[in-house]
Amino acid sequence: MELRRNNGERGYPKYIAYDGIVYDVTNCPHWLKELHERMHFPGQDLSGEMEDGPHKADVFNRPCVKIVGRLKPLD
User: What is the CA radius of gyration of the chain?
Assistant: First the structure.
């Protein structure tokens, strides 16, 4: 699965990653626009940004967030 491609464009879902896990946030109200909170684009690993944000990891337990896979290192 390619994280970057899943950015909500051209019919693709909106995926983000955190701590090695890939999540589908396509149907989450705060991700309906192109940019989440004017800071985060879908299709990215947000692991390094969560520390500075208002959210904690429990945000991934919301009903609209679905686990879809794991990040794999590029060969």
Answer: 11
Domain enclosing residue 37, as ranges: 15-70
Would you say residue 55 lies in a domain? yes
Q: What is the pLDDT of residues 9-44, one digit of tens each?
A: 999 999 999 999 999 999 998 877 665 555 678 999
64 neighbors 14 (Cβ within 8 angstroms): no
pLDDT tens digits, one per residue of 57-71:
778 899 999 999 999
16 close to 71: Cβ distance less than 8 angstroms? no
With the CA atoms of 25, 41, 32 and 71 taken in that order, what torsion angle do they form, in degrees rounded to the nearest 10? -10
Contact yes or no for 17/53 (Cβ under 8 A): no
Look at residue 10 and tell me if it is in a domain. Answer: no
Rounded CA separation 69/31 (Å): 19
Tokens of 2: 């390619």
